[in-house]
Amino acid sequence: MKLEERNSDNFERAWGQRNGTKAFFDGLSRELLYAACKGLEAPLHPMAYVSDQLMVLRQTDTCCNLLADAGFYSIEGILPDAVCETIRQCIGTDTEQMIPVVLLEKQWEMRIIPAEQGALLVFAAAAQQQIGVTLAASHLRDSAQSLLLQADLLSMQNMPDAAAQLRLQAMRILRQVNHMQLLAGAPEMLHWEQCSARKLLNNVAEQLAAHDIHVILSAPQPDITFLADKNLLAAALLTLVSNSLRHGGPEVHVVLSAEKYGSSVSFGVADDGVGISAQALERMNDTWRRPDALPGRWGLGIPYARKIAAMHSGLLLFLQGKEGGTSAHLRIPLEAASADVLESGSDYQTMLASGVCAADIELSDVLEAAAYRRG
User: Fold this and answer.
1) Taking Cα atoms as reference points, which of 126, 51, 95, 76 lies closest to residue 266?
2) Whose C-alpha in 11, 14, 130, 308 is 20 to 30 A from the C-alpha of 272?
3) Distance between CA atoms of residues 190 and 27, nearest Å
């Protein structure tokens, strides 16, 4: 028996033991059972299977209480339009995603797992604020700030190379702590504002150019306006560019673009490098949670960018080019979803306010110390 089949059998038995019902699984295919096995300890959570038309085909008893106590109904009107659109895009692109939703005045993390021309929706109660993570992040930021102050002193003492090394290490600390806290930190409000796709791309390109990294811009014509946290969105794009530079090879070229995609804006980061391996594509949804998420192999960058997309009720997907290279597409709705379900980049904005450039942080994984040499 294949591993996924054995896991499915174990899962079905576990569900019956925990919930006293197997109605959800009666006649369910192996593919859907295997998808359920991936759903955040699914036996503990409400779960529903929806079609590509967003009709609920079956659901657990706990999901009846969460969504609707009915046999066949649409989740449109229950979930926000932006969330429904994200589910459709996940089904259409066969991309898993986790996004926050509010149901019964409570915040949930909804995992979307495409399967059989539909999607399995698994609802997990959102984690409470991780006080330990917040405290650790604060200490790490203090350490990074101390390194930056020491670097300034070394520069004044005519030791620019040593100062550059300290700045590089400080930026790498800030990168990791920003990614870590966003993935496991406390829920707050996003800083919403009206944004211009063209201005956002130009801002990212200018930050890259300051580090002698030049990208090809494909600005939208006409411009696209949308609501978002522009600092976090820029950080996500810079992270994706860093990923292309790190894995694309020394001669890689990167293209930044934006286009309207239905009721969303889709930002593209495409490269002509060696591409992403099939193993990486399979694992990138939860690489940072795995025991083998070691530095240099499975990092926080892609989960971080995906989390920022999810915070905007959007998604991040990857496509392999026919002639090599990879293109990442970060799509978010043009209009903001309910702010109650979104988390904040306030700590990131604090770092920007202290004079640290977003590109300094997000590119620290691919730049050498010389890039942080002043004077």
Assistant:
1) 95
2) 308
3) 43
More confident residue, 290 or 19: 290
Nearest of 290, 256, 249, 283 to residue 270 by alpha carbon: 256
What is the number of other CB atoms lying within 10 angstroms of the CB of residue 336? 19
pTM: 0.74
Take residue 188 and report the two structure tokens written for it: 């707050």
Task: Report long-range pairs for 86-91 (Cβ below 8 Å, ≥24 apart).
Answer: 86/112, 86/313, 86/314, 86/315, 87/50, 87/54, 87/112, 87/119, 87/121, 88/52, 88/54, 89/264, 89/315, 89/317, 89/331, 90/114, 90/119, 90/315, 91/52, 91/117, 91/118, 91/119
Q: Which two tokens stand for residue 142?
A: 């203090």
Token pair, residue 205, equals 């390109």
| Residue 222 preceded by cis peptide, ω within 30 | yes
| Paired strand residues for 74 | 55
User: Locate tokens 């593919």: which residue?
Assistant: 31
Specify which residues 199 forms β-bridges with.
Answer: none
State how far the Cα of 178 lies from the Cα of 189, in Å rounded to an integer: 16
Cα 24 from chain centre: 30
pLDDT in tens, 225-238: 999 999 999 999 99
